[in-house]
Design brief:
This protein is 73% helix and 3% strand. Strands 1-2 form a two-stranded antiparallel ribbon. It is mostly helical.
Length: 272
Amino acid sequence: APFIAAFLLFFLAPALQTFWLSLTESSLTRTSGFVGLANYTTLVQDPGFWSSLANTFYFSLLTVIPLVGLGLLMALLVHRFTRFQAWLQGAFFLPYVLPISVMALIADWMLQPSSGVINHIVGGQRAWLADVDWAMPAVALGTIWWTVGFNMLMLLAGLRNIPAELYEAAALDGARGFTLFRTITWPQLRPVIGTALLLQLIASLKIFGQTYILTVGGPFNTTRVTLHYMYETAFTYSDAGYAAAIAMAFVFVVIGLSLLHAWMVRVIRRRA
């Protein structure tokens, strides 16, 4: 009962209110008359919305697979070196506990044209966050450094749940190194990896803070993602009805991608 009450009050009721708001012509301070699907008709023809959605997908493409892959490598490293396990786990997870404002300050400092660590490593004085081609990859790089610890911890928990008897039996049969990973670790860890991919996909689609703080959607709107466009529509242009329509459309996109992921996971499992 407490869970149902909390769900109805804090999730379902606001969602229904947002959907109703998307059917009206409203500002932040005034709710006007019912306009039906007019906001959604405008949304379909809005190049700004499609551009922001493309930027969101681009960011997800840059982060989802690398975050899970790098998290798996870190988890294997922590799991392998038991002597330094606590130190490695703490070092890899530490950036994740930082607030987004601190992460943005550190990322901005690392990406500075003249004094940044990244330019010191690669050479040159590129303004990463002001470059049309490199602004989004730079934000993705900062996000990977910031959040990879969460995936590492999840996958490490999956590694620790694999029975040691499986490795012992395989070792008696002469299996070593990559053969152990291919025949035992990967099949046992596949459900956890699927869950990590889904959670990371949803998290990457919901990006807002990194681009808003680091680039404010620039340069030339190349890092303006969907949630940033929704925020700008509501609080800069005071068009709450249209912003609600953007929010509802984005919810349907996230749900659709989640269902597609679940279907792909089922197909892969049946074929395996």
